[in-house]
Structure formats: structure tokens, C-alpha cells
TrEMBL record:
GO terms for cellular component: chromosome. InterPro entries: Chromosome_partition/occlusion, HTH_ParB/Spo0J, ParB/RepB/Spo0J, ParB/Sulfiredoxin_sf, ParB_dimer_C, ParB_N. NCBIfam families: parB_part (TIGR00180). It comes from Chryseobacterium panacisoli. One of its GO terms (molecular function) is DNA binding. The keyword DNA-binding applies. Residues 40-129 form the ParB-like N-terminal domain. CDD domains: SPO0J_N. This is ParB/RepB/Spo0J family partition protein. Pfam families: HTH_ParB (PF17762), ParB_C (PF23552), ParB_N (PF02195). One of its GO terms (biological process) is chromosome segregation.
Length: 296
């Protein structure tokens, strides 16, 4: 069954002779034209993954499903490889390469590119950005690598991937969040919109407070933005909108303290159940002395 369901490009497999594998390494070498632009069958034994591949996680269930498809229909879309001596390094398509091995095939159809290390990294990174299953942090990390390792400017990067500079800037800012918050974005516990609301706060303490509040109260992005505005300016109209209903435990504690001290008491929770403050109202020095006498 596997032998009958072959991948596309099988007829060009003979191109990869031992001689061509050894001698064709650049676009100027004799026979290079037979590689570039053609689909050829390459032995899986001659292929190795790109060690700087931006993608680091491959879902096992999805891989097995793809392997089943490949076993039945073959590899529909060729992978892209870089010629490296007698071997081939993956530029894009590592997921298809892994699934093909699981399916038990021995070759895979591929496009061959003759590129240097920097071009390889750039192609792998740009190809990675185009994936639909990327989380916001993985996208930000890829943007950062293109800027830092390839040396692109944000304007260059914007033109190459068709994204506004502001989109790239806002994405990269998420990398300033602490690892716990970044992991929450990666896992889908909160969205990138929540992350942007959190990063709008300057202090790490306020960022943590807002993150805890988002998780505990299940705030949507708009509510998170209002809460961020409240933390920046507690007296603003946004602060009133962002005010969260106290839990029953806090309400009971607030009433107990008010009954004991016989003054107005307000408990303000920061949302994580561990942080907050208690505000005691007093009208004059006598009332302050009265309060102090009960808490000494």
C-alpha cells in the first residue's frame, strides 16, 4: 500500500545521483539548474532538521493524523531543503518530514535551495511567521530574531511580511512581560490583547496585580484595559468602571471590622486574593485615637 501511494516528483528522483550530491553546492556549480526550481525525491536518511528551526513544539496527535494522510495519499506539498554537501537541511516542512518518517516512507518530495546560513535562517523565520497556529509569544520571538539575528529594521520586516510596523512593535513588547504571563498567553489562558493591557503598566507589581485580576475575575480585554487605566489613575472614571465586586469573604471581613471599630471601612482587593488594602475613615483626631486604641 505504501509503495503504491507515492509522493509527487518521483520521476525526478534520479537527479540526486551520488555525484550531484557531492558536487552541487552553489548556484554556479554544474548541474545546479537541475536542483533549483524542480521537485525531486530525497531520501529521508539524507535529510536533517534545521537546528535553529523557530518551531520547537510538534503536536503528537496532529503528527500521527498527518502521517495517516501521507500513508494514504502521499506528501501533497513538497518540503524545502538546503543543499549541504551530501546531505540536505530542512528550510521548511519539518512537520511533513517527521510525519513521513512515521508513515514509513523512505523518500519525500522536495524543492532544493542553494542558500547561505543567514538566508537559511531568514527563510525559516519568515516561513514560520506564516503559520496559522502560532501563539502571540512565538510570533514576537520570531520577529525579535529577524530583527536581532538577521539585522532587519522594523521597516524592512514590515515590507517582507506585509505587516504594519505598529503590529510588529506591539507584538515584540509582549516579550517584556514576565515568564508566567508569557506562558499564560502561550497556553491560551489569556489573550495577546490582555497582554497588551498588562504591558501598558510600568511597574512589574502593577502588571502582576492586573494579571491576577484578569484570571480571577475572567475579565475580557476591554475590562482589562479599564482595570489598567484604574491602576494608572485610581481617581479616573475608568477606575470606577473597573471596580470589581468584593468576594463574600471580603464583604464579611469589611463588616466585621466596621462593627468592631464603629467607623466606615473599605477593603480594596487587588484581585489575587492575597493583596489589597483596608481604608478606615475618621472625621477627627478623637476618632483616630479611638481606632488606634482598638488595634494596639
Amino acid at each position: 500500500m505504501k509503495d503504491k501511494k507515492r509522493a509527487m516528483g518521483r520521476g525526478l528522483g534520479a537527479i540526486l545521483s551520488a555525484e550531484s550530491k557531492a558536487t552541487v553546492n552553489s548556484a554556479t556549480d554544474e548541474g545546479a539548474d537541475k536542483f533549483v526550481g524542480n521537485i525531486v525525491e530525497v531520501s529521508l536518511e539524507d535529510i536533517y532538521p534545521n537546528p535553529t528551526q523557530p518551531r520547537t513544539y510538534f503536536d503528537e496527535k496532529a503528527l500521527n493524523e498527518l502521517a495517516q494522510s501521507i500513508e494514504n495519499l502521499g506528501v501533497i506539498q513538497p518540503i524545502t531543503l538546503r543543499k549541504d554537501g551530501e546531505k540536505f537541511e530542512i528550510i521548511s516542512g519539518e512537520r511533513r518530514y517527521r510525519a513521513t518518517k512515521i508513515a514509513g516512507l523512505t523518500t519525500i518530495p522536495a524543492y532544493i535551495r542553494l542558500v547561505n546560513d543567514q538566508e537559511l535562517l531568514e527563510m525559516a523565520l519568515v516561513e514560520n511567521i506564516q503559520r496559522e497556529d502560532l501563539d502571540a509569544i512565538e510570533i514576537a520571538l520570531t520577529y525579535h530574531r529577524l530583527l536581532e539575528e538577521i539585522g532587519l529594521t522594523q521597516e524592512n520586516l514590515s515590507q517582507r511580511i506585509g505587516k504594519d510596523r505598529s503590529t510588529i512593535t506591539n507584538s515584540i513588547r509582549l516579550l517584556r512581560l514576565n515568564p508566567d504571563i508569557q506562558n499564560a498567553i502561550r497556553s491560551g489562558e489569556i489573550s495577546a490583547g490582555h497582554g497588551r493591557a498588562i504591558i501598558s503598566l510600568e511597574s512589574e507589581e502593577d502588571q502582576q496585580v492586573l494579571f491576577d485580576l484578569i484570571i480571577k475575575e475572567k475579565l475580557n480585554v476591554r475590562q482589562a484595559e479599564q482595570a489598567a487605566a484604574a491602576l494608572k489613575n485610581p481617581k479616573s472614571p475608568a477606575a470606577k468602571k473597573a471596580k470589581v465586586e468584593l468576594s463574600n469573604n471580603y464583604k464579611k471581613a469589611q463588616k466585621t471590622i466596621a462593627d468592631i471599630l464603629d467607623v466606615k471601612v473599605e477593603i480594596k482587593s487587588f484581585g489575587n486574593g492575597k493583596k489589597g488594602k483596608i481604608v478606615l475613615d475618621f472625621k477627627n483626631e478623637e476618632e483616630l485615637e479611638y481606632i488606634l486604641s482598638h488595634i494596639k
